[in-house]
Design goal:
- Chain A: This is ArsR family transcriptional regulator.
- Chain A: It holds the Pfam family HTH_20.
- The structure holds 2 protein chains of 2 kinds.
- Helix content of chain A is 59%, strand content 4%.
- In chain A, strand 1 and strand 2 form a beta hairpin.
- The longest helix of chain A has 22 residues.
- Chain A starts with 6 loop residues before the first helix and ends with a helix.
- Helices cover 25% and strands 43% of the residues of chain B.
- Chain B has an 8-stranded antiparallel beta sheet with strand order 1-2-8-7-6-5-4-3, with helices on one face.
- In chain B, strand 3 and strand 4 form a beta hairpin.
- The C terminus of chain B is likely disordered.
- Classes of the chains: A mainly alpha, B alpha+beta.
- Chains A and B meet through helix 1, helix 5, helix 6 and helix 7 of A and strand 1, strand 2, helix 1 and helix 3 of B.
Chain lengths: 135, 159
């Protein structure tokens, strides 16, 4: 068993980040694909500045990432972190996400013709789960 | 690991017994189809994390059929079975789907494998349930499973 002293802190931050309905709404929206702040602000009756602050909280909790794409700065879900911590959000969708990501890994393996990577984990928890299965 | 994935779109319209799932893959249609046809490949992606998938029968051909069992890490087994009504290579399939823990509630699923060119594929799944209640029950039971898995992962994190 690997002791990770940061795990508790990350868990606290993630759960605090998700203790807010607007932030849960943002996460649910991002589970369908990346979006800009403007797009994320649309369904909410709050300012773009307020939405930006919510995104900062999610970013600090490791639940979302942002990239620069010309003038856009799209927000992306960090699926591994989200699945590890919050499988209770949007669960049905996450089950399918997980299944399709396993299929992605398998298809990538066949293309690379590298059987060793066949069961490539999609995150640290996937590896842990597989180990449990093998033992 | 990859942090970007193709998004999955799931639509479960209120008051109608359907579920629509659309997902694209960065692989040619023949590879996506083969991952559904070959039981050894199916085993590698169909089960939830940490579950063992035991395939008793898997004939992915028209008028074929299947039965498999998912065994969770605690040894609990969940059986599923159905028939493959129509299978057209690299193109289309219709199957029935029954969770044996919920007998006699059988969904009919069509799967369209669409060649997008450039080695990409779109998979469209349309599931029809006997009633809105059974459709919602299906979503709820998957949610239950997701919850259990979530707690298991949480246990791992807290390890």
């Amino acid at each position: 068993m690997i002791l990770d002293p940061g795990a508790d802190d990350r868990l606290d931050r993630a759960f605090m980040a998700l203790a807010d309905p607007v932030r849960r709404g943002i996460v649910a929206r991002l589970s369908r694909g990346s979006a800009t702040v403007n797009e994320l602000a649309e369904p909410f009756q709050i300012t773009k500045q307020a939405v930006s602050k919510h995104i900062q909280v999610l970013e600090a909790a490791g639940l979302v990432t942002r990239t620069r794409d010309a003038q856009r700065r799209p927000v992306h879900l960090a699926p591994a972190q989200l699945e590890a911590l919050t499988a209770w959000i949007d669960r049905y969708r996450l089950i399918h996400e997980q299944r399709f990501r396993s299929l992605d890994a398998l298809l990538a393996t066949d293309r690379d013709d590298d059987p060793a990577a066949a069961s490539a984990p999609t995150g640290p928890e996937a590896g842990r789960a597989r180990k449990a299965q093998e033992s | 690991m990859t942090t970007t994935t193709n998004p999955v779109t799931i639509t479960a319209p209120e008051g109608l017994p359907f579920i629509d799932i659309v997902r694209e893959f960065d692989a040619p249609v023949s590879a996506v189809f083969e991952a559904h046809r070959d039981p050894e490949l199916v085993k590698r992606w169909l089960g939830p994390n940490g579950y063992d998938m035991q395939v008793e029968r898997w004939d992915f051909v028209s008028q074929g059929g299947y039965r498999y069992v998912h065994v969770d890490p605690a040894g609990e087994a969940y059986g599923f079975n159905g028939t493959f009504h129509t299978v057209r290579e690299n193109e289309f399939a219709i199957q029935t789907f029954e969770f044996e823990g919920f007998p006699d509630v059988v969904a009919i699923e069509s799967m369209a494998f669409e060649d997008l060119g450039d080695g990409r594929t779109r998979l469209r799944i349309h599931s029809t349930y006997p009633s809105v209640e059974s459709r919602d029950g299906m979503v709820a039971s998957n949610m239950e499973q997701g919850l259990t898995e979530g707690y298991q992962r949480l246990d791992g994190l807290l390890g």
